[in-house]
Design a protein that fits this description.
Layout (H helix, E strand, L loop, with lengths): L3 E5 L1 E3 L4 E3 L2 H9 L3 E5 L5 H10 L2 E4 L23 H16 L4 E4 L1 H9 L4 E2 L2 H4 L17 E5 L4 H6 L3 E4 L6 E2 L7 E6 L4 E5 L6 E4 L11 H15 L4
Parallel strand pairs: 1-4, 1-5, 5-6, 6-13
Antiparallel strand pairs: 2-3, 7-10, 8-9, 8-11, 11-12, 12-13
Helix pairs in contact: 2-3, 3-4
């Protein structure tokens, strides 16, 4: 059996629904991991149980992160937020990295990872960054949209095996000030941060695109998940 990989879930109180896109499950399975969905729950004891259960953590995409989590007032363009999910995931990241559990943040997940570790984000690229490309693609989810430059001497560069990649893109928020201890490892041609990492941990990496949706057809995306699952395997007793 492969390592247990916790996958955070979307949480919509109005619809009383908890789910994760099948792409995440498939990408983890394809890489040799065993996916475990983690519903949003409150309380440190639950988070400790989750962290004690899993060998790795995938922070999934979803809605906006509330600006109160990084000390800002809301700006025009900020979307709907779900405070319960924000608080749950930020706490989950902190506890996971305390235990040196591998963490892979995807889209919203890179933003949560950065905020949890002391950074912040642009609440809305289109009102705060005048030079931003279109980062909400008008193409199917598994299609590449724009280029990303990958730092050669980085965990991400080694995981992908390339220095340039075309990625899919579905976001309007993005990392602004990188958290202490983390560094830039990928950026779009407009300067928007597309990847951050901290090599002080076994695996602590966030990407702004959605490699899980391309892992079935793109070798670099599939390799990223294999590297993540491999790191999770090494921590098993």
């Amino acid at each position: 059996m492969g390592p247990l990989i916790g996958i955070t879930t979307a949480h919509y109180e109005e619809e009383i629904s908890t789910y994760s896109r099948q792409y995440y499950v498939d990408a983890v399975c394809q890489a040799g991991g065993v996916p475990v969905l983690l519903p949003v729950l409150t309380g440190q004891s639950v988070i400790d149980r989750y962290v004690g259960l899993v060998d790795g953590l995938v922070l999934t995409g979803g809605g906006d992160v509330g600006p109160s989590n990084f000390g800002e007032e809301p700006v025009r363009g900020t979307g709907k937020v779900y405070p319960e999910r924000d608080q749950f995931e930020i706490s989950l990241v902190g506890r996971s990295l305390e235990r040196d559990i591998p963490v892979l943040g995807i889209c919203r997940g890179i933003q949560v990872l950065n905020i949890a570790m002391g950074g912040d984000i642009f609440q809305d690229l289109y009102t705060q960054v005048s030079t931003a490309l279109e980062h909400r693609q008008k193409a199917p989810r598994d299609c590449a949209w724009h280029h990303v430059e990958v730092c050669r001497d980085s965990l991400l560069g080694r995981a992908l095996g390339v220095e340039q990649i075309r990625v899919n893109s579905f976001h309007h928020q993005a990392v602004k000030r990188i958290a202490p201890g983390f560094k830039l490892c990928a950026s779009a041609r407009d300067g928007v941060i597309e990847g951050i990492e901290n090599e002080g941990y076994r695996f602590a990496l966030g990407v702004q695109w959605h490699p899980e949706a391309m892992a079935g057809s793109d070798p670099a995306a599939a390799k990223l998940f294999r590297e993540f699952v491999s790191a999770a395997s090494k921590g098993r007793g």
